[in-house]
Amino acid sequence: MITFEPVIGLEVHAELQTLSKMFCGCAVVDATTAEPNTAVCEVCTGLPGTLPVINAQAVAFAVRIALALHCTVRPTSVFARKNYFYPDLPKGYQISQYELPLAENGWLAIPAAEGERRIRIRRVHLEEDTGKLLHRGDASFIDFNRSGVALAEIVSEPDLHTLEDVKAFALGLRTVLRYLEVASGDMEKGAIRFEANVSLRPAGSRELGTRTEIKNLNSFRSMLRALAYEMDRQERRLRSGERIQQETLGWDDARGVTLTQRDKEEAHDYRYFPEPDLPPLLLRQEWIEGVRAELPELPDARRARFVSAYGLSPRTAAVLASERPNADYFEAALEAAPAVSPVRIAHWMAGELFAILHADGVEVAASRVRPEALAELVAMVEGDFISPATGKALLQRLAREGGSPGRLADKAGLDQLSDPSAIDRLIDATLQEHAPQVEQYLAGKKPIAQWLFGQVMRAAGGRAKPAVVQARLTERLAELEKSRLPG
To answer: Do 469 and 453 meet the contact criterion of CB atoms below 8 Å apart?
Structure first.
């Protein structure tokens, strides 16, 4: 039986976080909450006699993306009219880039069995977004607030062959965009959208099969479900001797199926031609290098540094470096407590703190637990001023109230008991309270010593230093055994 290999390429549209739209001065608003058609003007609604003007900040953001993806930025690129007719496209064409895009020939590394694999980036270019159709019963409405918002389109080569590849690429690209602070990557608000081109070919073949394109996938889950369905559909057709039609598909998430929208367009169907109202975009090399110099440390580099410089495991480093605010928080905590082990701070952050934040639905940047507070808490645990159990309880209180763990511990009397005389008094009181169990221990039931240890720790409210309690209890039980010896 023939084994088929999927061949997948992604087209990613990311809304850039500029204050105004791509070719006009209208404010960029949250299209999910703003009143419809309140951030519009003659330019972004395509009224006759208007002229577009290129948004310089959008260009700078797109160049940042291109450089972060190791692309070659063109000194000259050209905007073009992409002609097609759809209700939410007010001009009847979209201003995009075609023959001379902003940047080409880059790559993004994704995890692979051999360590990492580079997925080639074909191009990065600028364009404007469309409006948004709203369907209410039998009626449809158009909101043009989103029309004209600056988009960066990132197109991969067909280098993806599994759903795991696709997920790793999409998540990795979203992380880069967020690190660069050029796009929110908020899929629930449509700020990043995916289109997938997928075909099948016999394993080992270099020929590409007939591809279909799945449009406007606005969540990772939908994208993976749509691709899984489409790969299965194509395989079933091929095995039954049918041909795959090149077409554009939509994804019905409720039914879990792809649906034909139209025959797949080729470039000539869009009748591309240079935008007559915009000059070529000219970028000086020194300006491009200035943008490169301002790039932040990117996720892959930061993850590697966390392993080499701080001794974190690759898994923990990946968790902490996955979002820029998380990585910044971690390094701020390290700076606040240079004497504390980075591994211990990472353990508390990736474990206890993230668990609390996840349960509360809070991002780390908005947490009441400031980096210096987490560092102080870990230092208190590592220095045996409080027990790990007390540290976890304190962290819960810090997440609710904020403040200093030291002051909270003093206020609540949570500092750890380590004074031998105070612990001796707790032990004696516990042995008197549980005299029958002490008698069983003295009669030879040695495992009861561990139970007695637990009773002492309970009497101390978890504040007693376990090592001191264990040592003093062992000595006290030995004294009792000695006192029972004859003579």
So the answer is: yes
Which residue do the tokens 């280098």 mark? 159
Helix spans in 311-370 (H): 314-321, 324-336, 342-348, 354-360
Name the residue among 163, 168, 172, 214 with its Cα closest to residue 193: 214
**Which residues lie closer than 8 Å to 328 by C-beta, 6 or more apart?**
none
pTM score, whole prediction: 0.83
Number of other CB atoms surrounding residue 64 within 10 Å: 23
Task: Count CA within 13 A, CB hemisphere, residue 286.
Answer: 0
What does the DSSP 8-state code read for residue 165?
Answer: H
Count of beta carbons in the 10 Å neighbourhood of residue 76? 10
Sign, Cα dihedral of 398, 402, 406, 408: negative
Q: Which two tokens stand for residue 297?
A: 């440390």
CA distance 335 to 320: 16
SS3 (DSSP) at 78: coil
Alpha-carbon torsion, ordered 339, 345, 346, 352, to 10 deg: 170
- Taking the C-alpha atoms of residue 352 and residue 377, their distance in angstroms, rounded to an integer, is 12
- Rounded Cα distance between 414 and 292, Å, is 50
Helix, strand or coil, per DSSP, at residue 33: coil
Query: Which residues in the chain are classed under CATH 1.10.10?
Result: 420-484
* Whether the Cβ atoms of residue 239 and residue 47 lie closer than 8 Å to each other: no
DSSP type of residue 197: E
DSSP bridge partners of 155: 11, 123
Q: Which residues, in sequence order, are CB contacts of 431 under 8 Å at separation 6+?
A: 438, 452, 476, 480
Residue 52 near residue 156 (C-beta atoms within 8 A):
no
- In one letter, which amino acid is 287? W
Give the integer Cα–Cα distance in Å for 180 and 294: 10
Distance CA 306, CA 345 (A): 12
- CATH classification for the domain delimited by 420-484, as one of 1.10.10, 1.25.40, 1.20.58, 2.40.160: 1.10.10
Give the strand pairing for 247-252 and 212-217: parallel
As to burial, measured by CB atoms within 10 angstroms (0-12 exposed, 13-18 middle, 19+ buried), residue 302 is buried
**CB-based contact 215:194 (threshold 8 Å):** no
238-269 burial string, b = 16+ CB within 10 Å, else e?
A: beeeeebeebebbbeeeeeebeeeeebeeeee
- pLDDT tens figures, 88-146: 888 999 999 999 999 999 999 998 877 789 999 999 999 999 999 888 888 999 999 99
Phi, psi of 248 (to 5 degrees): -100, 130
Tens-place pLDDT, residues 399-446: 999 998 888 877 766 555 666 777 888 888 888 899 888 888 888 888
